[in-house]
Amino acid sequence: MHRLLVRTLVPALGAALCSASAPAQTFSGFGPTPTMMLPGAPLPAHSPPSAATGPALRRLPAVASPLRLWDETGTVTWPLFVTAAEARAGGVFQLGYLSAVSVLPEASTLRVGLNGAEIGRTQIDGVHGLRVESMTIAPGALRAGFNAVTVAVDQRHRVDCTVAATYELWTQIDPETTGLVAAGEGVADLADLAAIRPGPEGAVPIRLIQTGERLSERRVEGLLAGAQALALAGRFAQPVVSFAPSPESGDGVALAVAPAPELARSLDIASLGLVTGPLLALLPARPDRRPVVVVTGASEADVTAALAQLGALAAAAPQGTPEGLAALRDRDGRRIAGGESLTLADLGLTDAVIGGRTHQLTLDLALPHDLLAADYAKIALDLDATYPAGLAPGAQVSVSINGEAAGSVPLGKAGGETLRRRTVFLPLRLLRPGLNRISLLAELPRPDDRACAAPAGERLTLRASTRLTIPDLARIARQPDLAATAAAGFPYRAEGRAPTLSVPAPDRDTMAAAATLATRLGVAAGRPIPFAFAAGRSGVVGPTLVVAALRSLDAPLLKAAGLDPQALRDAWMKRDETAGSPAPEPGPAIRRRLLRRGGIPGCRGPATPAPGLSETALVLAQGVTGPAPDDVLTLVTAPTPGALSEATACLVQPLVWSRPRGAVTLLAADGTVAAQDPETGRYVATAPASFGNLRRIAAGWLSLNREVYALMALACAGLLAASTHQLVRNLGRKTG
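Request: output the structure for the sequence above.
Response:
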């Protein structure tokens, strides 16, 4: 394939997705139609592409895989949606990357694949900073709908050829300069919402249009429902939502939800003609505005009906290539319900012939939200592999689950060996609801590595027949558990009472954070969650999500969520006193610095291995507030409204979204977390009762409560001893 090397590039940076700070909201009286004012400070304008500048770069969407590829080998795959016009025209795939200076270009290769076929490769150059490569995509190579784009690296060290040195090797994909450059008219059809242009960090901005100076709580509820349906229809993995009085230009999409007479005061809808009933429409992008999805009608009832049309659009089956649909399906991990047995081939992998010193393979699995992870069973990994003679002592294949060591297979025979169904049992307790990452790391040293000889011949062949067997899982939800909420929106998605989204002080930044969280929970649930919106301080009744800066929360609410109000205030007050000036906006230099140190796109700040309260940017806490299964309060707070909005944008990054768990999670600015398990909790039935599930639940509960298990074992032993003693006493012939 033809490959064009772009020597230099000065990437255009989109404006930051944040607005000037605004004062607290003012409200009219809470009569039949309470209203809320959002200050109209406009967001920074973006510079839109125009026909004169040619096709624009459409960046790749955010994925849950890390964009830094460590060690000697690594891959990352994106589902890329293209319109029919883009598929017919073809285009150019552009890839921006940074690499470690220790990477040897002559022996290191970067490859780009499209739907399983390679479209270009290049040597990896880590000396000259950011590199941008362009690979031509022939007309017809893309298919309308979802396609799979894969970037793979094979990299070697310049001077140190030991296994330890391979962990210095890395290639970092730059999301800002990576994507598709294709001719087309942009998104002109509602069926092509997945082609909406993401921002510089892979997130899709959704701008909710504020009609008029005031928004009623009912109007906010409609916008929240529309934002969730829009994110589901566009398959947005990282929606970042904000409110604004006009669409303006830039990345992402705008959403307007209101009756036509009201909408006409804020948006030019003349092209829609006379609106006499429910209407769902798309206004294509213009130089002065981004695309706008319009949900309108002649009356409020019509608007509700148009929202239902948007929800139906979200339920439509996606189209694309088999590889693209598989990439979309597994974007957040292969869904596992329990009882599955999958080979690597089933997961889309082939036999791997490994000639390097290390090789890492990662399997992403999405477990149910009501998983009870405990040692009532084992995961079985049946390894099929062959290694030749000549490996040095210490050669092995090790397995980790969510970063914790889970098992290993030594490759210690001097003459080599063929492993057939060599079983490694892995602890089930290391799993958690939602995304789980199982990593296989092959370390394959040879005695001649010390002389830095070039790798010769294969060191390991890992067969695609290697099988992973997940046992039947115990299915019961635990509360509080933030992992279950992040995995599926539980318990807010359940049938029954509508959950409440409470915003005690609805300023612009806090409302952006609340809408972003509500939208991301709808994506996790797989359907829009009908949040009832409550502005101002109110009591907590039923399923409730509270989003506010710390200064807007009272002590009883913090305590109900399981937080210590004084400790939190003291920690953040002390940090504010020593922090100095606020963090600068994310300009080119900051983005480059974050890119070089491997920061998560959308997250900023210094690396924090285990954040404490003083280093925390965002606190998520969950508490049980009543006897009903959905009497659950989830509280999200930060020191200030601006910090709340910024940290929430980091939280919804797919890689970060899977990290909250337990009763309290502390999120640092760089995306790292520290979690605290609840001191007490409860179990909530989520599946019909069955003997098998009850047996697994009982075994799991006993493995999590070993003191009770020990007491029960002692009690059983005591009963056995007493009954045996009584039996022996009564045996034998009695004499008079």
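Confidence is low (pLDDT under 50) at residues 1-35, 39-53, 578-582.
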